[in-house]
Amino acid sequence: MANIANTYYPQQGRLVILGAGESGVGAAILGKDKGFDVFVSDLGVIAESYQKQLQDEGITFESGQHTEAAILNADVIVKSPGIPEKAPLIKKLREAGIPLISEIEFAAQYTDARLICITGSNGKSTTTMLTHYMLEKAGLNVGLAGNIGKSFALQVARADFDVYVLEISSFMLDDMYHFRADVAVLLNITPDHLDRYDYKMENYVNSKFRVIQNQTANDFFIYCSDDEETVKALPRFDIKAMMLPMTQEDVVSAGAYLNEKKDLIINIPNREIFAMNIEELSLQGRHNVYNNMASGLVAKVQELRNQTMKESMGSYVNIPHRLEHVAFIGGVNYINDSKATNVNSVWYALESFSPDIVLLLGGVDKGNDYDMLRDLVKQKVKAIICIGKDTSRIHDAFEDEVDVIVNSASMDDAVQIASHLAKKGDTVLLSPACASFDWFKNYEERGDKFKDAVMAL
């Protein structure tokens, strides 16, 4: 069974939740249902909808502050993945020796459902949604949670799923210790969030590999054998699960690969072999072949029929803000890829489209290294329109690679400029490589403003 024995953490007493977003409120409700004395604390202002949920459940909370005396007396603490280890309160809690865990770790104690856990620097959301879509189409009683959808803890408390597909970030994995994935998927590892890992790639890699901790010989580990960082790290870990590689470079006896006819082949011992030409996949582009391989391997592990898999892979529609087609205006294709908040995501986006691309780039730079984009930008991008407050690093990185780099004053302005620069057959691509917090609340708002501006053309 996937759940952890109920002896690792206190099963009663005072449960303190730090952060009252989707995961925090869900954990609070599950804690209440399990008989804990629950207190929720958020340094920011709690959204009205979450305040109402907590009030309706009769759960005590504070908003806009952390009262240390009400937190340091906890028996167990569930913290939001967004709170960094270097926060003074977290340091105090660590010194006090109070168990400090993630919502996923907390909730996993209370379910016997099969847990499919998907992590990676890029492609997590698409692969998680596609996997959920496929399993649901096959008639499984399956929940969707983690970084996406409704809180895992809330679903464990109030729903009854046999299987969960969980999108897991490195921040979540950092606070998971006894949790075990029945199926662990590691899509890729590229530099991201290094500010949270002392700017050491090895620390970030170690965090990603926590997805396989506690796995047994009865479990499965799906990984990309074309991914340099993953392959380099494999020898450092004692992997007990059945290893299922996916590759577009080789042929593997067990796993997923492409044959000479560009058929995606999935072969797992004691299962029927699956084959589907990549031209038939609804999600196109090299990176989406990997996403389909990962989802297909999960489906095969779950013993789905080939016909169901083919129908799902051929009909799935991508999530909003990830290579989302917005409109075709005057022969120009407008694509919303606002979810691309790192350089690697932009690389995937550029790889998915043919020249000529007008690229909207910029926002809050997380210390991006734009070197990996240079060749693709040179080959495919005719103009870059900078969005966001600080655009100097984009100018420095690409002024020798493209003829046109201009700044914009707003998203409306950026789209107007793009529409004048783009000719019939071109693609206008919002793929920012940066966080959105200078002009927008989040990447969703950024994507929505782009879509609004395009539809207003």
Tell me the number of strands: 20
Low-confidence stretches: 1-5
In angstroms, what separates the terminal alpha carbons?
A: 54 Å
* Number of helical stretches of at least 4 residues: 17
Report the biggest beta sheet as strand number plus sense, adding barrel if it closes: 6 strands, parallel
Structural class: alpha/beta
Q: Kindly report the spatial arrangement of strands forming the biggest sheet.
A: 7-8-6-9-10-11
Structural topology:
Elements: E1 14-18, H1 22-33, E2 37-42, H2 48-57, E3 60-63, H3 68-71, E4 76-79, H4 88-96, E5 100-101, H5 103-108, E6 114-119, H6 124-137, E7 142-146, H7 152-158, E8 163-167, H8 170-174, E9 183-186, H9 201-209, E10 220-224, H10 228-233, E11 242-246, E12 255-258, E13 263-267, E14 274-277, H11 286-301, H12 306-315, E15 324-329, E16 332-336, H13 343-352, E17 357-361, H14 374-380, E18 381-386, H15 392-398, E19 404-407, H16 411-421, E20 427-430, H17 443-455
Parallel strand pairs: 1-2, 1-4, 2-3, 4-5, 6-8, 6-9, 7-8, 9-10, 10-11, 16-20, 17-18, 17-20, 18-19
Antiparallel strand pairs: 12-13, 13-14, 15-16
Q: Could you characterize the architecture of this molecule?
A:
It comes from Sphingobacterium tabacisoli. Keywords: ATP-binding, Cell cycle, Cell division, Cell shape, Cell wall biogenesis/degradation, Cytoplasm, Ligase, Nucleotide-binding, Peptidoglycan synthesis, Transferase. It is found in: Cytoplasm. This is UDP-N-acetylmuramoylalanine--D-glutamate ligase. Helix 15 links the parallel strand 18 and strand 19 (404-407). A 6-stranded parallel β-sheet has the order 7-8-6-9-10-11, with helices on one face. Strands 15-16-20-17-18-19 form a 6-stranded mixed β-sheet, with helices on both faces. The chain has 457 residues and is of the alpha/beta class. Helices cover 34% and strands 21% of the residues. The chain is globular and about 65 Å long.
